[in-house]
Write a structure and sequence with these properties.
The protein is built from 13 helices and no strands. With about 325 residues, the protein is mostly helical.
Length: about 325
């Protein structure tokens, strides 16, 4: 009686390859839903933005769907528009002021946290987190109420000091210099908590023995911070500075809600200029898209220069 030979068991090597293939596909399958959502809400709008910047898409196109491809004409128009260059200069100057103020105050607050008692440090940390977690739209509206003429708390307090005269009826948003000061205070107030807590986390990693050794050598507290703490904070400090440049370059909500880019466009940065170009008047969406793309390229260029400088100086992010 003959019997068919039994099938040979699969080779271990082939089974191992199939197992590795299945294990390598599992993460991709798990990430694919989030990837599709991310592509839909991020990549697709970016592609639409870039494509629209090469067209004359405007208010008429929103209803008829008709538009013409104009190539680089939109970019030529904005590069020849003096308002674009004024907005760019305002953005660069204001970004520099914001980054300098927020990083300096954040570093000071970080060092202060290390010297507070545990209970007071916990309370300060909670307050910083609450301030940072507040939506910037809500913060901007509250800020606007604080600086309101007639019944604003800030005007009342400054008037009560008697140092600056009667500011009861002063409208901060109607004066270019005061509007910039008001917006600067708002953005810095929102940025400081994140910077302070991030730098504080890095500062707590500095060995206390180094600080004590410097103090035994007769170094003052300022010298200890400059010679011991600051070099240890440098990588984190450079990272939060780069993040601050990116965030502050793109500030829009605070400016729009406090001054709407006024008075007479005096506080119009690239973000405000992009919005008013694309959605005000004739809704020149194509031109606004070109401004947005140009702004992104400028920010990429600034970031590339910054990172290149870090690499040349030997710093590690």
């Amino acid at each position: 009686m003959s019997t068919a030979p039994a099938a040979a068991p699969p080779r271990p090597a082939a089974a191992a390859r199939r197992a590795r293939r299945r294990s390598s596909l599992a993460p991709l399958l798990l990430l694919s839903p989030a990837g599709l959502v991310l592509a839909g809400v991020t990549i697709a709008p970016i592609v639409f933005l870039v494509l629209t910047s090469f067209t004359d898409y405007d208010q008429r196109s929103l209803f008829t769907g008709a538009y013409d491809v104009v190539g680089l004409a939109q970019y030529a128009d904005i590069l020849g528009d003096p308002e674009f260059w004024l907005a760019l200069v305002r953005t660069l100057v204001f970004t520099s002021a914001l980054v300098a103020g927020s990083v300096l105050i954040g570093a000071g607050m970080s060092h202060l946290l290390t010297r507070l008692p545990a209970a007071l440090r916990l309370l300060t940390t909670v307050v910083l987190i609450l301030a940072w977690a507040m939506p910037n739209v809500a913060s901007s509206l509250i800020w606007r109420w604080l600086f309101q003429p007639q019944y604003g708390v800030v005007n009342w307090l400054l008037t009560r000091t008697g140092l600056v005269g009667d500011l009861t009826s002063t409208n901060w948003a109607a004066d270019p210099r005061l509007a910039w000061v008001c917006i600067w205070l708002l953005v810095v107030w929102q940025a400081v908590p994140f910077l302070a807590l991030t730098l504080h986390a890095a500062e707590t990693q500095v060995p206390i023995e180094r600080k004590e050794a410097a103090r035994l050598d007769g170094a003052s507290e300022l010298a200890v911070y400059r010679v011991v703490v600051l070099p240890a904070l440098r990588p984190t400090l450079l990272l939060v500075t780069m993040l601050s440049v990116i965030w502050d370059f793109n500030v829009f909500n605070q400016i729009w809600l406090v001054s709407a880019g006024g008075p007479d466009g005096a506080t119009s940065t690239l973000g405000v200029f992009t919005f008013t170009t694309a959605f005000s008047g004739g809704a020149r969406v194509g031109t606004g898209s070109a401004v947005a793309v140009a702004s992104t390229l400028i920010l990429f260029a600034l970031s590339a220069v910054y990172i290149r400088t870090l690499v040349r100086s030997g710093e590690e992010l």
